Amino acid sequence: MINSIKPEAPVADRVLYTYFRSSAAYRVRIALDLKRLDYRAVPVHLIRDGGQQHQPEYRAVNPFGLVPSYREDGRTIRQSLAIIEYLDECHPEPPLLPVTPFARAEVRQLALSIACEIHPLNNPRVMKYLERELHVDEATRLGWMRHWMKVGLQALEAMLAEMGSSGRFCHGDQPTLADCCLVPQLFNARRFEVDLSEFPRLLAIDAACNALLAFRNAHPSKQPDAAT
Amino acid sequence: MINSIKPEAPVADRVLYTYFRSSAAYRVRIALDLKRLDYRAVPVHLIRDGGQQHQPEYRAVNPFGLVPSYREDGRTIRQSLAIIEYLDECHPEPPLLPVTPFARAEVRQLALSIACEIHPLNNPRVMKYLERELHVDEATRLGWMRHWMKVGLQALEAMLAEMGSSGRFCHGDQPTLADCCLVPQLFNARRFEVDLSEFPRLLAIDAACNALLAFRNAHPSKQPDAAT
């Protein structure tokens, strides 16, 4: 009976609103690639046109005017960590979180340390406020940027040492949500010439990640909007 | 046979390093109380002694020098959202996240919007950097504080309207992780006299939360270190 033939599962219509240099979007690109999920990238240029993220069309997608946003089957999720947890729950293989609650908490605390304590302070909207509202000069703004990255990465290096659960990656020998956050943060640190020599653990994990195709595919330089 | 008698499950030794006014610690206190979990509060005074969070004893617990930290059976978890997800996985009732992946993502995006886009910019360590390193005067620092709260709460109010999944609480009619973050953020906004009149949805949810004993018990004014 023809009806008994199972139809092809419909390909979900996955859309990622992204900007090549956004480290939060970069996290989600890594997760999508690790899980081998196809998606359509919609670039939102954070500088051009006074910042396309401020246009009403994009504000309707993301009221914060931040990237990334993720749409699937017409529904939107904002916040990179919420998107990655969603992908992990819908597509469990390969897992981006370990199995036991404490191990999951270990991974989440690393990811959140980057997402809450380092990245928000270096966001373009914050740099713009420092420049335009507080009239902070460029060198001092760069000092601000480097300060928060440096103290954050120092704490992260110390936390990894204390935890004792890292392996080739932040947690054991498989990439997790924590690695999805670490690699973009280190990309950003290099971009602003933060001296990374005092972070041997972070650098070793970064190298292990970037040996994987999924991390390389997600790199800013590989994105369609990179040259624009 | 006496050995067949099941021993009482050992009471976990739960410790929360907290500061009464820390909105991140306040989030975890709400979650612990909603789940009716006993814990021992260890106050870390963020101002006294030049900030007890900077002392080597506490840095050993939390390399970022931030509260809260949570210890259970000799193991430490930092980052309020990682702690709450851990509590929710170990003690599923009452749940602080809904059941379906998309609904979970909706709750997490609200919680992360507060934890990543509002709170980190108003953290005491940031205010101190503005004062001591950038020599920003008090009125301008207050303007900074209010600016990030206001734009963040505006986006949150718009996001709730767009999502259409809020009820008495941020998501439906039971408190979730998102409410654990919203109530402390509004407490903080009131403390710095942010005009909240333009946020009717947030205020209605805040009132519904504060009608519950768990939220009231977790309030800064109810903490043992409140008067110190």
TrEMBL record, chains A, B:
Superkingdom, natural source: Bacteria
Domain GST N-terminal: start-end pairs: 12-95
Ranges where the GST C-terminal domain occurs: 100-228
Matching InterPro entries: Glutathione-S-Trfase_C-like (IPR010987), Glutathione-S-Trfase_C_sf (IPR036282), Glutathione_S-Trfase (IPR040079), Glutathione_S-Trfase_N (IPR004045), GST_Zeta (IPR005955), GST_Zeta_C (IPR034330), GST_Zeta_N (IPR034333), Thioredoxin-like_sf (IPR036249)
Keyword tags: Isomerase
GO BP: any one term: glutathione metabolic process
GO molecular function: glutathione transferase activity; maleylacetoacetate isomerase activity
GO CC terms, sorted: cytoplasm
Classification via PROSITE patterns: GST_CTER, GST_NTER
A Pfam family reported for this protein in Swiss-Prot or TrEMBL: GST_N_3
Family (UniProt): Belongs to the GST superfamily. Zeta family.
Full protein name: Maleylacetoacetate isomerase
Source organism: Caballeronia terrestris
